[in-house]
């Protein structure tokens, strides 16, 4: 428990005082609905979702399903347009543009910096160790009284590894601002989720997404799990109808088919281990980093040139060589067996032609 944490001191004064927009569906969602300037004549095509009506503002059914799956209450759940929306909302709730700052631990997910720049919030950085773990003491020492949020990503993008659980807990316990633990890849991981810790730690926000293990990147459904006090602010600041009906329906189907999701993940992980084995047999690969996600990074000589040659062969990986500690590293997302074999063949060809 972080006893010095006081959310009222952390939230921007304009957000504390905000009178949120009240949408028509807040009051009634059945009856003769002549309240929301919708078009009762319907959409120009047949559909069974009543697409001419606005969606539910608070997505109760979906939030119940997510809460059940993660072992928390619906009051702990925010749903939005990808985790990227949740990241942006956290900036808007907690960070005063032009004066506050956040802390990130590169190499890490690029969106924290972009969202900071959009919101005119400074970014303080403490690098991970060369094996991509937290420098806990340095990270905590780098905090100033303007630091509002620390972003931790586990499993981390682009490195693939999970951060040590005790290190993350030390940061959550010793920092009096918000600690975001981005768990976009948690369902590929052997590590346990932080979701159920949100009632113990009022400053913890866990981010999850349907874009990865659920295989639903196209629907844009992101999740924040936190103490209800934080969730209430996110609900207040979000656009009234942020999650649309098509997304909501697909997301509900996703959480109603957990076994199929787990089966896909199991197949993907078997395939990932096979790819690692094959990569290990290629002499030109200098290092393959351990991964706890559906991707991995590996080091080769002249990675940028390898990246370009793979692209010429029609196989697109990500060059991550400009990230700290990732010199000459390429990031590979695990695909289907056929895709992975095509990649492996293309990679061997690149090295043979050199
Ligand atoms: C660590 C991390 N967080 C969040 C996201 C984005 O998630 P979403 O698709 O829900 O916006 C990604 C996407 O690559 C990611 O790697």
Structure report:
- The chain has about 350 residues and is α/β, with parallel strands linked by helices.
- The chain has two domains: about 5-255, Type I PLP-dependent aspartate aminotransferase-like (Major domain) (Aspartate Aminotransferase, domain 2, 3-Layer(aba) Sandwich); about 260-354, Alpha-Beta Complex (Aspartate Aminotransferase, domain 1).
- It is about 35% helix and about 15% strand.
- The protein contains twelve helices and eleven strands.
- The strands form two sheets. It has a seven-stranded mixed sheet, with helices on both faces. The protein has a four-stranded antiparallel sheet with strand order 8-9-11-10, covered by helices on one side.
- Strand 4, helix 7 (about 165-175) and strand 5 (about 180) form a beta-alpha-beta unit.
- Helix 3 (about 60-70) packs parallel to helix 9, helix 4 (about 80-95) crosses helix 5 and helix 10 packs parallel to helix 12 (about 335-354).
- The longest helix is centred in the C-terminal third of the chain and has 23 residues, at about 260-280.
- It is globular.
- The N and C termini lie far apart (about 55 Å).
- Bound molecules: pyridoxal-5'-phosphate.
- Pyridoxal-5'-phosphate binds near residues 153, 157, 209 and 217.
């Amino acid at each position: 428990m972080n006893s010095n944490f006081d959310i009222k001191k952390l939230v921007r004064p304009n957000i504390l005082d905000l009178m949120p927009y009240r949408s028509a569906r807040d009051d009634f969602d059945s009856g003769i609905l002549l309240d929301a300037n919708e078009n009762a004549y319907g959409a120009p095509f047949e559909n069974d979702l009543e697409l001419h009506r606005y969606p539910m503002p608070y997505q109760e059914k979906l939030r119940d399903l997510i809460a059940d799956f993660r072992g928390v209450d619906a009051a702990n759940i925010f749903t939005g347009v990808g985790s990227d929306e949740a990241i942006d909302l956290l900036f808007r709730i907690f960070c005063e543009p032009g004066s506050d700052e956040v802390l990130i631990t590169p190499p890490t997910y690029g969106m924290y910096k972009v969202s900071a720049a959009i919101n005119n919030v400074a970014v303080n950085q403490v690098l991970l160790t060369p094996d991509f773990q937290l420098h806990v003491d340095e990270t905590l020492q780098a905090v100033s009284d303007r630091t509002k949020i620390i972003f931790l990503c586990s499993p981390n993008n682009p490195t693939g590894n999970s951060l040590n659980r005790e290190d993350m807990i030390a940061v959550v316990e010793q920092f009096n601002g918000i600690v975001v633990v981005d768990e976009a890849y948690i369902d590929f991981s052997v590590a346990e989720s932080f979701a159920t810790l949100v009632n113990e730690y009022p400053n913890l926000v866990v981010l999850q997404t349907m874009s990865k293990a659920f295989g639903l990147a196209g629907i844009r459904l992101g999740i924040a799990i936190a103490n209800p006090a934080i969730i209430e602010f996110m609900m207040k600041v979000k656009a009234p109808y942020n999650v649309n009906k098509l997304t909501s329906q697909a997301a509900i189907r996703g959480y109603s088919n957990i076994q199929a999701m787990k089966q896909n993940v199991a197949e993907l992980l078997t395939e990932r281990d096979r790819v690692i084995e094959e990569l290990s047999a290629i002499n030109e690969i200098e290092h393959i980093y351990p991964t706890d996600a559906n991707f991995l990074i590996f080091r080769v000589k002249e990675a940028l040139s390898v990246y370009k040659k793979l692209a010429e062969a029609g196989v697109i990986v990500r060059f991550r060589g400009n990230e700290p500690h990732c010199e000459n590293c390429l990031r590979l997302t695990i695909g289907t067996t056929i895709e992975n074999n095509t990649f492996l063949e293309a990679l061997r060809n690149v090295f043979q032609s050199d």
